[in-house]
Amino acid sequence: MNIGIVGAGKIGGLIGTLWSQAGHDVMFSSRHPETLTALVAGAGRGATRGAVDEAIAFGDVILLSIPFKELPTFGATKGPAFRRKIVLETSNPTLSRDGVLAEGVLESGRGTGAYLREWLPGVRLVRAFNTVWDKQLASAAHRPQPRVGIPLASDDEEALRIAAELVLDAGFDPVVVGGLDRAREFDRGTAVYDTGMSGHEVRLGLGLIDR
């Protein structure tokens, strides 16, 4: 599968590398793609680098991992290029970084998914890879069972299925929670956020299975 990484930072760089090592063709991108030489070299022969627009055009699936406060503008300027692509979005609203925007999202109680739907209309969005820090993901990828759980939410059933397969390829346990509005159940500050829970523990914590 062709995968474009938009925002090749700690999460994007790590998950893109895991996918490249799993046999996918991955194009990493950032505003300064010339800085990605070492990342691409370490990611394996299926990895390349490019500008953001090139990665969007390249990918059947896009991992979008940019600061939360940039998403409204990014959606307005780049959204049309994402139309009908599957986009896994990873960022979290952080008061210290994202200011008033984060405050409004956190106080609304609507959850990140509802805002993403508004900012990126027509995109096959999946909320993913937002609950576990990069260092823990790096150390836990492909560990023996039980594997770290990665909650997923989307309004698109096929996008959820493909995202779940990609979570498996990266070495984690996909936990399908439901529609995009249910992303609020695993947003920052919830019981399963930043815990390193296994997939089974995440399912228990979200009430998806009985104890």
Description:
The protein is α/β, with parallel strands linked by helices and 211 residues long. It contains nine helices and eight strands. The protein has helices spanning 10-21, 37-43, 52-58, 71-82, 95-108, 112-119, 134-140, 157-170, 199-205, and strands at residues 2-6, 25-29, 47-50, 61-64, 86-89, 124-127, 149-153, 173-178. The chain has a six-stranded parallel beta sheet, sandwiched between helices. A two-stranded parallel ribbon has the order 7-8. Strand 2 (25-29), helix 2 and strand 3 form a beta-alpha-beta unit. Helix 1 runs parallel beside helix 2. It is globular, with a radius of gyration of 16 Å. The model has no long low-confidence stretch (mean pLDDT 96).
* Tally of helical runs: 9
What value does the Rg take, in angstroms? 16 Å
Q: Number of DSSP strands? A: 8
How far from one another are the termini? 37 Å
Most strands sheet: 6 strands, parallel
What value does the average pLDDT take?
96
Principal-axes shape call: globular
User: Helix proportion of residues, in percent?
Assistant: 40-55%
Content of β-strand: 15-25%
What structural class do helix, strand and pairing data support? alpha/beta
Which consecutive residue ranges, at least 5 long each, have pLDDT under 50?
Answer: none
